[in-house]
Specification:
Layout: E1 2-10, H1 14-23, E2 29-32, H2 41-44, E3 49-50, H3 60-70, H4 77-85, H5 87-96, E4 122-123, H6 129-142, E5 147-150, E6 153-159, E7 179-184, E8 190-200, H7 221-228, E9 233-234, E10 239-246, H8 260-264, E11 267-269, H9 289-303, E12 308-311, H10 317-323, H11 325-333, E13 343-352, E14 355-357, E15 369-371, E16 376-377, H12 390-410, H13 432-449, H14 456-479, H15 484-505, H16 519-525
Parallel strand pairs: 1-2, 1-8, 2-5, 8-15, 14-16
Antiparallel strand pairs: 3-4, 6-7, 7-8, 9-14, 10-13, 11-12, 12-13
Length: 531
């Protein structure tokens, strides 16, 4: 089966949905969702979205400086200024689409403050901001006549010259995207989607690790597809581990305890009730996430404990329940009343600061292919994302990409000679144990050797182990009819490889990349001078 659209959007989080809404005014859009529209990284975001709205106390320059400091001096200055100065107009757009941000009695936004921010600038909806944004966007999407939604459809690979018999090479500057091969998960049919413009908005990579806050769909699919097509990938060594996920070994993914709770006044403590963050940073519990995560990791190694505590019992109980109803109810469901008891927390893989390299218009190195959201590397986050800058980046880059890609779409025709998917000679794989076991091995390798603390020896061992699984999986892939689980495994291996190789090339400790072989430099870099 073949389908033709002006725009193909792969991914249905904030970036994909807002991009689809904006380009749909100029052409037909296919929106491909791996599961349903509601299941995304966006919908899991609790804290909020950062933007300068209180101009009496805040300004762009403060937000820009905070972003650079958190990013350990390697943020792209042009990107930072672009995203932060365009924030207010994109917040206005979200409001017009029906997003409801909390307000105070006087009608002003009830702004939060999170780690690394110098001012209160986080707009939020209770403690489920991402879900609220997702709800509003979905409502708009379902009512738009130019958008066709394909739920439970899995993108296998983007279509380039490679599928026309021409080899793609990394040095090529004329690789072009013609669409994607997409698996209908219910019928198992592989559809050839031809598009003039393709937007990659597939989210993060958290499930490469054993402990993550990401939904199970976050397997780095878009980045892996672009990598295989020889597109440029950047910054994969910078994996952000959220310092505070709920310690509950029976559950995956880990439930996130938003950073806004520390902004509200919650304090990190050890089992004996003593505090420890003051030993690591003068900002204490409101230090940037990389510092807090490393501090917790170090304290757990010293004590041998599986978790530390987050204590909010000193705050007004009714106020706590009002601000964090989802967290309160979740903890209560496992027997913890957060107004009376401390919350057991542990760091978890949370956010990728790297990804598909894009320019200021959201263009990737592959022609007619754009990327936005967590799967992209814009340069905004540098070596460590400032809290609540991610949703902001997603909607701003969806906007600039929509404006740029509309002109590209109008100048492009479909490539009619693209072949349909050919799986002749393959068989249905009956050995699911091969896939499930390899998945566990990848997650174990990445967690043990490529986590919060790394070393040259750990990275080499991880790469050696991963190469064995890669060869086995490629043999299985080439012999089998494709399935989502097999493709996800293949993508996770690609992502693991990229993280390891880029970590090996960075001969310093900076931001989220902390290595024992260069840890002395990190003491200086933790002050975050801007290069």
């Amino acid at each position: 089966m073949r389908k033709k659209y002006d725009y193909l959007v792969i991914g249905s989080g904030a970036a994909g949905l807002s991009y689809a809404l904006k380009v749909a005014e100029n052409g037909k859009v296919a929106l491909v969702s791996k599961t349903t529209l509601e299941v995304t990284n966006t919908s899991k975001a609790q804290g909020g979205i950062a933007a300068v709205t209180d101009i009496e106390k805040d300004n762009y320059e403060k937000h820009i400086i905070d972003t650079h400091i958190a990013g350990a001096g390697i943020c792209d200055p042009d990107t930072v200024r672009l995203v932060i100065t365009k924030a207010p107009e994109q917040i206005k757009q979200l409001l017009e689409w029906g997003t409801d941000f909390d307000k105070k009695a006087d009608g002003q936004f009830d702004l939060h403050k999170e780690g690394g921010h110098s001012e209160f600038r986080i707009l939020h909806h209770l403690d489920n901001t991402g879900e609220e944004i997702q709800r509003a966007l979905i409502s708009q999407i379902k009512n738009h006549p130019n958008i066709d939604v394909y739920e439970n459809h899995f993108a296998i690979d983007i279509i380039t010259q490679h599928h026309l018999g021409r080899s793609n090479e990394p040095w090529m500057r004329d690789i072009k995207c013609y669409g994607a091969y997409v698996l209908n998960e219910k019928t198992h049919e592989i559809i050839t989607f031809l598009s003039k413009v393709t937007m990659m908005a597939t989210g993060g990579v958290g499930n490469v690790y054993q402990v993550t806050t990401n939904p199970t769909i976050s397997t780095g699919d878009g980045i892996a597809m672009v990598f295989r097509a020889k597109g440029i990938i950047k910054g994969m060594e910078f994996i952000q581990f959220h310092p505070t996920s709920l310690y509950n070994p029976q559950e995956r993914p880990n439930f996130l305890i938003t950073e806004a709770m520390r902004g509200y006044g919650a304090i990190l403590k050890l089992k004996d009730g003593s505090t420890f963050m003051e030993k690591y940073d003068e900002r204490g519990c409101l230090a940037p996430r990389d510092i807090v995560a490393r501090a917790i990791d170090n304290e757990m190694k010293i004590s041998g404990d599986d978790f530390v505590y987050l204590d909010v019992t000193h705050k007004n109980p009714e106020e706590t329940k009002h601000h964090f109803p989802m967290i309160y109810n979740k903890c209560l469901s496992i027997g913890i009343d957060i107004t009376k008891e401390m919350i057991p927390v542990v760091p978890a893989a949370h956010y990728l600061c790297g990804g598909i390299k894009v320019d200021l218009n959201g263009r990737s190195s592959i022609n007619n292919l754009y990327a936005a959201g967590e799967c992209s590397c814009t340069g905004l986050h540098g070596a460590n994302r400032l809290a609540s800058n991610s949703l902001l980046e997603a909607i701003v880059y969806a906007d600039v990409a929509a404006k740029d890609s509309t002109e590209v779409m109008r100048q492009t025709e479909w490539r009619e000679d693209v072949p349909d998917w050919d799986d002749e000679g393959t068989v249905h794989n009956e050995e699911m144990i091969l896939i499930t076991q390899a998945n566990k091995e990848v997650e174990t390798i990445m967690s043990n050797y490529v986590g919060i603390v790394r070393s040259n020896l750990r990275l080499k061992r991880a790469l050696d182990r991963l190469e064995i699984i890669y060869r086995e999986t490629e043999d299985l892939y080439n012999a089998s009819k494709v399935s989502m689980k097999l493709c996800e495994l293949r993508n996770k291996i690609n992502i693991g490889y990229l993280i390891i190789k880029m970590a090996q090339k960075r001969h310093e400790s900076r931001g989220l990349h902390y290595t024992l072989d260069y840890k002395e430099r990190n003491k200086k870099l933790d002050t975050y001078p801007i290069d």
